[in-house]
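In the design runs reported in the main text, the only information available to the sequence generator was the tokenized backbone. The following block is the verbatim input for one such run; it is reproduced so that readers can re-run the procedure and compare outputs position by position.
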């Protein structure tokens, strides 16, 4: 009997010992199986992020070109020929922003046909090409032998006007040098089409400013022979 009890005890102890050895082994295997797949990608991503950040910082730093000159220094300078109006748009009927004195330096910003966008004293505006001199991009004299007939009209309307202020219309004629006689007729559109204006047969035409007149359209018809 005693031997049987001893064998049972030894058997139980052996079983418990086997159980304790198996359970920790099982726990380790499970932990390794769970932790390893989730941990490895994170560790692999770290050096990628560390090596990527300096590249971004380095790419954001631009080395200035010491040989490049500021754009302002390349801009052309022309001179106002007589008192010159700077207009809001490249149109003779556009409002006058300011008027500069003869000989004022004008910085050329761009050129659009007969109009030059300039800057003077911090103010930007458009001037008619005939109002300035010294533009390098002008056509050579030999190419100006033939001038097509062209009429450009201008208004003295300014950005701010009071009712009753006089507004004078004038014009510049090109290509009419060989004409023996020239006659003018100003036409106005008050919303019903252009019609001849009474008393508007001179080189200029003046009318009072008003809410209505500021919205009128104007034409100049030139007769010549």
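Verbatim output:
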């Amino acid at each position: 009997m005693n031997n049987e009890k001893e064998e049972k005890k030894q058997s139980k102890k052996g079983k418990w010992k086997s159980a304790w050895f198996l359970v920790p082994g099982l726990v380790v295997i499970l932990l390794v199986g769970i932790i390893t797949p989730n941990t490895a990608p994170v560790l692999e991503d770290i050096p990628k992020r560390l090596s990527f950040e300096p590249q971004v910082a380095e790419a954001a730093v631009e080395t200035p070109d010491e040989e490049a000159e500021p754009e302002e220094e390349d801009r052309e300078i022309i001179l106002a020929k007589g008192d010159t109006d700077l207009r809001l748009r490249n149109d003779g009927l556009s409002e006058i922003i300011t008027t500069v004195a003869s000989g004022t330096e004008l910085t050329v910003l761009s050129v659009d046909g007969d109009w030059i966008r300039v800057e003077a004293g911090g103010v930007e505006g458009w001037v008619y090409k005939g109002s300035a001199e010294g533009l390098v991009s002008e056509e050579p004299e030999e190419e100006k032998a033939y001038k097509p007939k062209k009429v450009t009209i201008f208004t003295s309307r300014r950005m701010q006007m009071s009712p009753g202020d006089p507004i004078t219309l004038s014009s510049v004629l090109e290509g009419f040098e060989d004409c023996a006689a020239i006659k003018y007729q100003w036409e106005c559109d008050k919303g019903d089409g252009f019609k001849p204006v009474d008393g508007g047969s001179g080189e200029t035409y003046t009318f009072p400013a008003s809410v209505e007149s500021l919205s009128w359209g104007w034409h100049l018809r030139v007769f010549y022979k």
